[in-house]
Every structure is written in C-alpha cells, then in structure tokens.
Amino acid sequence: MTNWMPDPALLRRPAYFSLAEQFARAIESGVLPTGARLMPHRKLADGLGLSVQTVSRAYEELIRRGLIVGEIGRGSFVLGLGAEARQPYLPERPGQVVDLSILKPVVEDMHLLRIREGFAWLAENMAASSALSFRPNMVMPYHRQVAVNWLAGQGIETNPVNISITNGATPAITAALMSVAPMGAGIAVEALTHHSIMPLCSYLGLHLEGVAIDAEGMRPDALDAVARHGAIRSIYLQPNVINPLAAQMGQDRRNELVEVARRYDLMIIENDILNVMIADRPPAFATLAPERVLHICGFTKITLPGLRLAYLTAPARLATTVANRHLVSNWMATPPMVDLLSHWITDGTVAQLAAWQRTALGQRHAVASQVFGKAMPPCHPHSLHLWLPLTNNWAEDGFVAKARQQGVAIASGGSFRATEKGRYEAVRISLGSAGEEELRRGLEIVATILADEPEVLMTPI
Fold first, then answer.
1. Residues in CB range of 354: below 8 A, 6 or more apart
2. Residue 310 in 3-state DSSP?
3. Whole-structure pTM value
4. Considering Cα of 456, then 458, then 459, then 461, what sign does the dihedral take?
5. DSSP secondary structure letter of residue 382
C-alpha cells in the first residue's frame, strides 16, 4: 500500500473534488504509479481529518475518470493515465489464477443440470403474469405465501404482506438500510462486517459505527456504550457463519443484543443468507424480537450463484416502508426466477441443494485442515470461507501481493473493517470458489507463504 498522503492544507471546497484533484495530479506526475494500492477510506479520512463519506466521493470521482479501480476484497488501485476503467472485482481467469478471493458456493456439473431442468420446467409452467405484468402485486402474492411457509420452517412467523422478494441479498440490504435510518443517521456494525456495507452506507449518507467484537461477534457492552450516546438508529448483524470470522453467534449473545436493542429502541437488520444450510444455528433474531428485526433470507450461497434471490421480512409497522424502498431501488425481483425459486422450495430442491452444499463444505474444511494443520483458524465447519490471522510479521497487503505473485487470489482483511480499533492482520480465503484440487493447491501456496518470513527489500549501499 502506498504511503503517499495528500496535503490537507491544499484542500478547498468541495473537499471531495479537491482531494480527487490532488490524487489526479499525483497520478499524472508519476508519484502514484500504475498498480499502487491506495489507503483504505477510513485510514485516509482519519489521516486528513475528513469524513469517510468525503474520501469515498473522492475515490468515486477518480473511478469515474478512469484513474483508479476498486476491487472488492482487495482495495483501490491506480490504473494510470488513459487506462480503461474495469469492473470492481477480480475477473474470472480459469487456468491463470486460483481465485480464492470471491465468496461462492461449491458447484459441480450437477448444478448446471439442475438449473437447465428448472428452465425447462419454466418453459412449460411459467405464470403469464411473470412474463406480462409490470405490477408486483399481480406477480408476487403466491410467492410471498411460499416464502411464509419456508420461513415458518425456520421458526420465523410472519405474513405475506411483510415480505419483499429481492434479487439477492444486496438489494435486500439496501432496502433495509433505507428503511431504518434517514440520511445522516448512524448504523452500528461489527468491527469486521460485510465488505459492501461501508460503501453502501457512504452512498446513502449514513454514518457507520464499528462496534467491538469477540469470537461470537458483536459485544453487547460495546453496543450499549455506542447506543448510549444516541448516535445510532439500527444494528446490522451477520450472526450465522457468513460474517468474516466464519463464526456462529450463540443463543445467550443473541438474547443480550436484543435486550440492548430494546433498551435503546434500535432496529436490527439480520443478514441470514446461509439459513437452512447451518443446521445447528440458534433461533433467528427475527424469532427473538420480531417487532424490530428486518430479516434477510438468501438462496444464492446455499444453492447456486444463478439463483440470485432473497426474502426480506419486516415488522408489520415497517412493511410498507420497506416495500416502497424496494420499489424505488429495484421495483421487483425477476419474476421468472421467483417462479423457479417457489417451485424449487415446494418440490424440495432448495433443501436438497442446501444439504448437498453443507456436505461439500465439510469436505472442503477437511482439505483445509490437512493443509494448514495447527495453523487452521477456528471457524464453523460449514462456513464458505476461512478468516486466517497472519503470523511472522506479515502485513495484509504484502501477503495478498505475495500470494497473487504465486498465482493465488485472496481477500485482504482491510476490506471488512469498519474500524481500526482492535485491528490485527488477516486475510479471507474462500473455500467454494475453486475445484477441490485447485483449492488444495491454492491453500498449500498460502500455507507456505504463511510459514515464511516477509522478505525486506535490500537497498544498495
């Protein structure tokens, strides 16, 4: 990561544009060379005495100009003058890199066959309204009832009118955030959280408050300390294994967090996208505090990547608000895909695929345990990833770069930090995004690097 720092004395209003101009001049002069990794938003903001939102807007301006690119899980990098802007994620390059950076379920030929069979079923059975109607209320009533039945099997009691069906977890998170906090309000998140929450809150004008965590997730005492100042309106949680630590939050911890939320009248957004795939999960927050929980039940990570759908369940008093926010941001989920999801739920396919995924991930964890041995980090046995603390004085950027040089892509821990407090160096490694042999090879490379000391560049005398 570059140590270059803009000069705060040269900042003028609007600050984001002035900041972007300093970066642009540094890139033009070669001070920031092509490929240089820029400071994370929060670190730069703290160093300059600016808000994270201001830094985010400056980086967005640089992305718009084609001078930098943001890669999910890795950071922001200089493209150089005249470079064409790229998509903000690592492209798929089979045979060139073992990509353990993106979180995906395990897939095999069977999954492609299943979805082809699903599309064949759609060709014969798709409802006319799914193809011909623009109105969600003409398309979704049946599917909302299917959702009610599915959620009831997980102990979540609700009504069809309280459910919005979305094109995956990201639109659900967006609609939920828009529903629980006005612009300028605060959202409490775990110190290690979903990588898209930071930029999303910035785009929505929300203040993010990183709360201290332990092995189970957010600490109730730390949340109480933040809430006592009245700066937050809602809490965003990932209690079921999908969090960066790949940890399961216990029943007692959930009860304690609910108690704090009720004490300060805070809403809770519960990202539960692994739901039925985690067989030993405690009752959802939506079961413990239905009056204040917006629950997100996903399907992409437990079935296959193409089934990009989720259920967003809201308390009755917020159901209309959530529906309206979803309408203006996404209108409605893709109707034919919702037809397929309801069919797969009712005929048992979703449950079967989730069970298959659970078994496949168990096998992937066995491979990781063989490779890492005593260095295997603690995690749930059916998590999609590992959170690997770095040893031997490794820094995240150097470790990620070293792995990339040897043909393995992994995600830097910095992409998941909502606060620098309690920071330690770590990387996230996906277990589902590569074939099993490719995964073993990638993990062996990572384990070898981990056991090695970072080499200091020698300077000629």
1. 275, 276, 277, 302, 303
2. strand
3. 0.80
4. positive
5. T
| Closest CA relative to residue 188, chosen from 166, 211, 160 | 211
Q: DSSP alpha helices (H): ranges in 186-250? A: 197-204, 220-227
Map out the domains of the chain with their CATH numbers.
8-78 (1.10.10.10), 98-105+351-451 (3.90.1150.10), 126-347 (3.40.640.10)
Residue 261 in tokens: 């939320």
Cβ(313)–Cβ(267) below 8 Å: no
Amino acid identity, position 335: P
pLDDT for 458 equals 47
Q: Average pLDDT of the chain?
A: 90
| Confidence bin at 95 (pLDDT 50/70/90) | low
Of 71, 101, 105, the C-alpha closest to 86 is 71
- Non-local (6+) Cβ contacts of 207 within 8 A are 184, 185, 186, 187, 201, 231
CB neighbours of residue 164 within 10 Å: 30
Over residues 160-184, mean pLDDT: 95
pLDDT of residue 92: 52
Per the document, the length of the chain is 461
